[in-house]
Amino acid sequence: MKVGVIDVGGGFRGIYATGVLDFCQDNAIEFDLALGISAGSANLASFVARQRGRNYTFYTEYAFRKQYASLRNFIRGRGFFDVDYVYGTLSNSDGEYPLDYPALRDNPAEFIVIATDAVTGEATYFDKSSLSQDNYAPLKASSSIPFVNKPYFIEGKPYYDGALGNPVPVEKTFEFGCDLVVLILTKPENVPRGQGNDTKLAKRIKKKYPKAAEQLTLRAQHYNEGVAAAQDHAKQGKLVIVSPDDTCGVDTLHKDRESLKKLYAKGYADGQKIKDFLHANGLYEND
Q1: For residue 1, which of 134, 179, 267, 280 is within the disulfide window of CB 3.0 to 4.6 Å?
Q2: How far is CA 57 from CA 24, 96, 109, 223, in A?
């Protein structure tokens, strides 16, 4: 059986998925395909590189630096999240905590990063061939939140956050040949996504990128449809949803160190659901 994992991201809420994935590493759980969106792509990059604990350091230490995420960054034109600092300065081979690119490359698992073409509004699926040592452009593109960040250009094409194009890519994961899927959400499963600031942000980018703006206004609808589809697959035994019962006050752009640690702990504890799911399908010898 081919088993896939999806990490949908969610800004600082992504530390929940970090807890889930650290549990998986501690219990020798691996996946044949890892598909990440926004912060989820960074989580899974470290997971596929088998760098247990790397993401935790980013969320609980580096994220509190002004160079990482701040209004100052935004005012200076680098975006609230400075993706070049996060996925370049910190992550390159000469950085403070390098991504082990050779380990990521040599892991037999497929690794897919979703970004959204800012011109067409369609999802783009970058695989390992789009990455190279110290060139993690797809991670930067996938994490570029509209207006909060400028679109990130790859080979002359602008890209925004992958959540615009396909926020919960369950069907796509099955199209990639997976028989079983683990879906990691970073907000409670039964809490529908609201529009929040999506409409306001869409107006900010509509003139230059109307298709991306349209997708942004539909993001909540597409997210909720994706979760509903996942719940249907879960009823058939083909998928398990791992999600927090609450987010401990952590939000996409707002964080508190103690709250982050609590949300991480929830994720680690909830990783047991994956062991149980794989055991039920004959793929893991449970304790």
Answers
A1: 179
A2: 17, 11, 24, 28
